[in-house]
Amino acid sequence: MDDINPTMKEINPANAPTPLSETAKAEIADLAARQRKANGVLMSAINFVGGQVEDGLKLLPASGRDQIDDLARAALRHSFDVASKSRTGRGQSIGSDRVHKILGTISGALGGVGGLPTALAELPVATTVIFRAVHHVAVAYGEDPDAEETKLECLAVFGAGGPGTADDGVDTAFIGARLSISGAAVNGLISKVAPRFAAVLSQKLATQAVPILGAAAGAGTNYAFVDYYVSMAHVHFGLRQLARIYGEDAVTAHFHKVLAAGKLAQT
Question: Are 248 and 176 contacting, i.e. CB atoms less than 8 angstroms apart?
Answer without folding.
Answer: yes
